[in-house]
Write a structure and sequence with these properties.
Layout (H helix, E strand, L loop, with lengths): L1 E5 L3 H13 L3 E5 L2 H11 L3 E5 L7 H11 L4 E6 L5 H8 L4 E4 L4 H22 L9 E6 L6 H12 L5 H23 L4 H9 L2 H12 L2 H4 L3 E7 L3 E7 L7 H10 L7 H9 L2 E5 L4 E7 L4
Parallel strand pairs: 1-2, 1-3, 3-4, 4-5
Antiparallel strand pairs: 6-7, 7-8, 8-10, 9-10
Helix pairs in contact: 2-3, 5-6, 6-7, 7-12, 8-9
């Protein structure tokens, strides 16, 4: 994929550039928002990684200008410790994600892999954009992280062209977060602290954590069910895992009062990807909706 890095700090800029090139991505760099906007117009990247606080044109202004030009490009903002409130402003301006500095391979590499799969899925969907949509559909998937992007691509396929392009991107990103959360925290029962500790030790340790859970026949046999429904005003998805659930009422209160300190950034991101998000039953079921544009 084509990636544009916009970062005024030279060591950070070079770190991102070297990491992207090592993963085989076509990479462009810019030292501030003004040059970043020019590079965006010239190269039309699939993904933009931009710092928020920069001279001449900051990342929030750059994001606004990019969204005037494209609603389908993936934009991820980076922010330093102590400036996390800018991350929420970025999400409200339709950034797709944010990463806190210092940037580390353990968070960056999985993110790049996920977005590369999403972009590939978008290309596959474009080839079949004239398919007949379905109004109701149910899909079950196993605890296989490698199949999440493929499953979401299929769900987008059967939805057809009922949403605008920018809404399709929101839905694709949001469903990937929900399915990942359902497998990881729901079906496999992995706690946030367990995941963070494993990630600190590297991707192999994280894989080992997953493998340890999959040794249990009870956990390994669990499924995630996705129910899709379409009506005249919205598209709706209900994602159900077979885990024990959690105290979702307290979670929603914390989400409103102190969102940047949440234990699940994925669910915070989903709040901005969908028009509504609600938990059902014990919390092992979440319903999200995306409103259809009136034409």
């Amino acid at each position: 994929m084509k990636v544009l890095v916009v970062e005024d700090d030279e060591p950070s800029r070079n770190y991102l550039k070297d990491t992207l090139l090592s993963q085989g991505h076509e990479t462009y760099v810019a030292e501030n928002g003004w040059y970043g906007l020019e590079a965006f117009k010239k190269h039309n990247p699939n993904l933009v990684l931009s710092d928020i606080r920069m001279p001449k044109m900051d990342g929030l202004k750059l994001l606004e200008e990019i969204r005037k030009l494209s609603r389908s490009v993936i934009v991820v903002m980076t922010t330093a410790y102590g400036c996390e409130e800018y991350a929420l402003k970025a999400l409200r301006l339709r950034a797709n994600n944010y990463i806190k500095k210092p940037l580390r391979h353990m968070e960056l590499l999985p993110l790049l892999k996920k977005y590369a799969a999403i972009i590939d899925g978008n290309k596959q969907q474009d080839k079949t954009s004239d398919q007949e949509k379905k109004a109701n559909f149910t899909l079950e998937i196993e605890n296989n992280f490698e199949k999440i992007s493929e499953s979401v691509t299929f769900l987008m396929f059967i939805m057809g062209n009922v949403l605008e392009e920018t809404d399709k991107l929101d839905v694709r990103l949001g469903l990937i977060e929900l399915l990942t959360n359902a497998i990881e925290h729901g079906n496999l029962g992995i706690k946030r602290e367990e995941k963070l500790n494993a990630m600190e030790q590297g991707q192999e340790s994280l894989k080992e954590l997953y493998n340890q859970r999959m040794v249990s026949p009870r956990l390994a046999s669990r499924k995630v069910k996705i129910e899709y429904k379409l009506n005249d005003t919205s598209a709706e998805w209900i994602v159900t895992d077979e885990g024990q659930g959690f105290d979702w009422k307290s979670f929603l209160k914390r989400l409103e009062t102190n969102p940047l300190q949440m234990e699940s950034k994925g669910l915070l991101i989903c709040k901005y990807h969908f028009d509504s998000l609600e938990f059902l039953n014990s919390g092992n079921q979440v319903r999200v909706r995306k409103l259809r544009s009136l034409k």
